[in-house]
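Try this one yourself first.
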């Protein structure tokens, strides 16, 4: 039986585990998922596989970071060859990337957030619900980031700082002191990594929202059940129920998690 203060979270396309670890700090069962090994130091919290093979596994929330290589506006210049002809391979990969985004947004998960820079998702699928910058979360840098949300609120800035410095990877250098090329592996990893301040806000704000959502839903279900059979429901202890069971023989509580918070809240209380 799942506890009300604990969420099962899938962090898609994340090898750094920055977001995963913030959810773990709050006590949630979070897992990163990517086609490469994790670099976050916790392989036991990592699923090395295509995330689409795992989106049907009873998650409460998914935070997705699909690769932006074929989605970003800045990459659109590669859609055409130097002679003006279409780069058919690039067009095909862009469509595959968009299909991947659609699969993530349509995942059978109650709470979903998908992150990407300014991209063709806006024109080909839909406009983002939220646009944020690192400097709103304690990092004095600019990196316009779009969020597409399903059943989640907009992120609220937590620490707006004055600095508007150039992006951190602009000045990155290798061990010899040579400036790294914009398309180097090191730069790509740095660019894709979620800022810690943003990761903290994601975990804190959205986990609270999801837990309150679950509580509100269950409260409504219990009240509805007791309205149908008040005497019977008064005698019930909520911890007797697990997923798939019902309260008043009406199927009202199917697919609902009844958990410890409700045990302590409703025990020895009447719902009239």
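Now uncover the answer:
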């Amino acid at each position: 039986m799942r506890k009300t203060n604990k969420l099962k979270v899938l962090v898609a396309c994340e090898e750094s585990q920055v977001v995963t670890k913030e959810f773990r700090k709050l006590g949630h069962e979070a897992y990163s998922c990517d086609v490469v090994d994790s670099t976050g130091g916790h392989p036991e919290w990592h699923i090395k596989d295509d995330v689409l093979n795992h989106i049907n596994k009873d998650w409460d929330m998914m935070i997705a970071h699909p690769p932006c290589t074929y989605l970003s506006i800045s990459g659109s210049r590669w859609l055409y060859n130097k002679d003006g002809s279409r780069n058919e391979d690039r067009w095909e990969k862009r469509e595959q990337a968009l299909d991947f985004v659609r699969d993530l947004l349509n995942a059978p998960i109650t709470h979903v957030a998908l992150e990407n820079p300014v991209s063709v998702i806006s024109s080909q699928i839909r406009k983002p619900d939220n646009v944020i910058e690192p400097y709103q979360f304690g990092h004095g840098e600019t990196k316009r980031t779009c969020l597409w949300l399903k059943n989640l609120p907009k992120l609220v800035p937590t620490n707006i700082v004055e600095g508007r410095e150039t992006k951190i990877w602009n000045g990155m250098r290798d061990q010899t002191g040579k400036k790294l090329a914009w398309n180097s592996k090191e730069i790509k990893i740095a660019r894709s990594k979620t800022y810690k301040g943003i990761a903290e806000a994601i975990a804190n704000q959205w986990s609270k929202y999801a837990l309150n959502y679950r509580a509100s839903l269950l409260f409504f279900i219990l009240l509805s059940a007791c309205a149908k059979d008040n005497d019977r429901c008064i005698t019930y202890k909520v911890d007797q129920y697990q997923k798939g069971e019902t309260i008043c023989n009406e199927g009202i509580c199917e697919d609902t998690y009844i958990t410890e918070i409700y045990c302590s809240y409703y025990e020895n209380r009447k719902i009239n």
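Discussion: Residues 229-272 have pLDDT under 50 and may be disordered. The radius of gyration is 22 Å.
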